[in-house]
Amino acid sequence: MTKIISVRIAKSLTAAIIVIAALLATFGVLTASAPAQQAPLHLNPAVEKLAHGQPIIGTQTDDMSLQNCHSLARMDFDYSYVDMEHGPLNLDGLAYCIAAVCAISSLRARPSSQRLDRQASS
């Protein structure tokens, strides 16, 4: 009788160990070849730099003129902060400023050969 009980306990214990091992393997605790968790990707390059401990450089302006926005786009800043709290609220001016920055930034992102081809065809 005691032999039957000890066999049942051994089988139950073996089954419990197998279940625990399966759960641990599922969560990657027992697998030696589990890849390291990748760092999350950031859409904002400034946030990506900060996540890697690198400094960021930017500027603050309240001038939303086309000339200023073109100048800001040509600078190698990580961010530009347009202050609209301490001046008149001009959402149209902000939209034109962002469009100008995007236009210049897209030209900077192209390889120089594409820029020369575009200028030659103009």
Explain this structure to me?
The chain is mainly α and 122 residues long. It has 2 domains: 1-37; 45-121, no CATH class. It is 57% helix and 7% strand. The protein has 5 helices and 2 strands. The chain has helices at 2-26, 45-51, 66-74, 91-109, 112-121, and strands at 58-61, 79-82. The termini are far apart. The mean pLDDT is 75.
Question: What's the N-to-C terminus distance?
Answer: 98 Å
User: What is the average of the pLDDT values?
Assistant: 75
> What structural class do helix, strand and pairing data support?
mainly alpha
Please bin the fraction of helical residues. 55-70%
Largest β-sheet summary: 2 strands, parallel
Q: State the shape.
A: rod-shaped
How many helices does DSSP assign? 5
Q: Work out the strand percent.
A: 5-15%
| Overall strand count | 2
Number of domains: 2
State the low-pLDDT regions, or none.
Answer: none
